[in-house]
Amino acid sequence: MDILEVIKTRRSIRKYKKDSPKDLDIEKILEAARWAPSGLNNQPWRFMVIKDKETKDRLAQFTKYGYIIKSAPVIIVVCLDKESSYHYQKDLMAVGACIQNMLLEAHSLDLGTCWLGEILNKKEDVEKFLNLKENLELTAVISLGYPDEKALEVKRKSLKELKIN
Amino acid sequence: MDILEVIKTRRSIRKYKKDSPKDLDIEKILEAARWAPSGLNNQPWRFMVIKDKETKDRLAQFTKYGYIIKSAPVIIVVCLDKESSYHYQKDLMAVGACIQNMLLEAHSLDLGTCWLGEILNKKEDVEKFLNLKENLELTAVISLGYPDEKALEVKRKSLKELKIN
Predict the structure, then answer these.
(1) Which domain holds residue A103?
(2) Number of structural domains in chain A
(3) What average pLDDT does the segment B17-27 reach?
(4) Full-prediction pTM beyond 0.95?
(5) In the sheet that A74-81 helps form, which strands lie side by side, from edge to edge?
(6) ipTM over 0.90
């Protein structure tokens, strides 16, 4: 099956319905994450799933996009395990591949996500708040839930602009 | 459509048939790349498609996995455009998401890929060999073609090992 349509129709979703995604769907999304490729198959990604309202509300305070975290019934915190890491750049790309698997799997299940990066400006504070062990580095926060908005139209550069001659 | 099966059955392919993938399929793979998410939608990825045998053979010399580059009819060089970059870590993750889109789209078209990272050990030499402009940083090389081997079984850590308590 050609999955280009799933890839092209995925959008950031910033407003969510109140009902939580099914546990089975959350498991599928983490399963998708688990199967991402990584250099030397080192699988440097680690996940924390947050559903608790109070924790979400407090986490929201660390980013100007906190309203997205508050709106989403589920938050997936993605960390890089520095103990598994063997090449920082490659490991970050692997984490990116892993996140993309989650976004695509969620979209294919009619769930919405938003990849929140701005929160990294408060990385150390968030790591402390979440009580993350020394070996874990915060890399992204993903919001997840049933979309309650029409996704914005977005543009991309043309292939011509992206190709190196 | 639930794309978990595409995600879970994708494997690194290291040996390819001689026939080149159709141009339309290569375009689809780059189209998938183009639609990856990035922070501030900065789309920091750039691509060079190499089909020329001599160029491939010379590129192959920069990595101990050169036999994969030689075997593949098509090579996609992925670079980070430092001029588009706004946050190195986030941009690398975006490039990882973009690469994963390519691997998944290729697999969904029954094409095989291998994400070659070891070549980054010779980053500067490869950048010079490919005559890349100052603003482009080599981030990965992807081999592409029709699989001519049964993919190896690979393992992943269990979800339990990946979850942060």
Answers:
(1) 4-162
(2) 1
(3) 98
(4) yes
(5) A45-50, A74-81, A136-145, A112-116
(6) yes
